[in-house]
Design brief:
The protein is mostly helical and about 250 residues long. It is built from eleven helices and two strands, in the order H-H-E-E-H-H-H-H-H-H-H-H-H. The model has no long low-confidence stretch (mean pLDDT about 90).
Length: about 250
């Protein structure tokens, strides 16, 4: 394992993050505050509790998941797309490093950024609502696994994208709707039976449900099913990245 190469890629990506640190810090704080104003005040005044949890507290895990997923994807996709755009990716391909070291450097930095954003949102949420994390270790596990998984997914998107517009295509048109329809701001049990069945085909449901369980001990699906789902997704992403570097798909062409 070439730790020097991993460190160089990781530090380079993190340096880009710290150059816009205040923007990266203020953006989630402002957006989280707006969500609490709109959903917590407007909708929360009409819905007192959801499954025994105050509505303002109930939406916190969904807010964190929404930001973590989108931030993980956007940071990782831009991080690997820019070397493609400038042509410096060929230096990586010719260097004495393997695909795993490249992924750890780029996706690791993206996951770190997403983890920071998630922590900021969690801290901001504590200013608005009372929160009690019943299973903190499980919460950290889900948060880290989600950051890593969607950073890997973003890495794949960055390889696939042919222009800057395509970098935002999947996060805006796929991930964000799946999060909103995946029980981030409501319980699946509140839906009619037919829609409950349809919603279970949404993979984001399992991530949000497991993450919410770590806060309040309530979930729409069993916790082990949620862990299995995120583990399977992460495994598929790793396999896809391995295949990309093995075949040179969208890299050497």
């Amino acid at each position: 394992m070439n730790l020097t190469a991993i460190r160089a890629m990781y530090v380079s990506e993190m340096a880009r993050f710290f150059r816009t640190f205040m923007q990266s810090f203020l953006s989630p704080v402002i957006s989280t505050s707006l969500y609490f104003v709109v959903f917590g005040a407007a909708i929360g005044s009409r819905i007192d509790e959801v499954e025994g949890v105050s509505y303002g507290s109930f939406i916190v895990p969904g807010l964190i998941m929404l930001s973590v997923m989108t931030q993980g994807i956007s940071n990782a996709s831009f991080g690997i797309y820019f070397p493609k755009f400038t042509g410096t990716i060929y230096e990586l391909l010719s260097a004495p490093i393997n695909f795993l070291e490249v992924v750890i450097g780029f996706a690791g930095a993206a996951a770190t950024k997403a983890l920071f954003i998630g922590t900021v949102i969690l801290g901001t949420s504590a200013l608005f609502v009372e929160m009690q994390i019943q299973h903190p270790l499980v919460m950290v596990l889900f948060l880290v696994l989600t950051c890593v998984s969607f950073a890997l997914f973003g890495f794949i998107i960055g390889i696939w994208a042919k222009n800057f517009e395509q970098l935002q295509l999947i996060p805006l048109l796929v991930i964000t709707p799946l999060v909103f329809l995946g029980g981030s701001f409501y319980s699946i049990n509140m839906l009619p039976p037919i829609w409950q069945t349809i919603t279970m085909f949404n993979p984001v449901v399992y991530l949000i449900s497991g993450f919410r369980w770590s806060f309040f001990g309530v979930a729409d699906v069993p916790i082990f099913t949620s862990l299995l789902a995120i583990g399977l997704f992460q495994g598929l992403c790793l396999f896809a990245v391995w295949w990309i570097f093995k075949t040179g798909w969208r890299i050497r062409k």
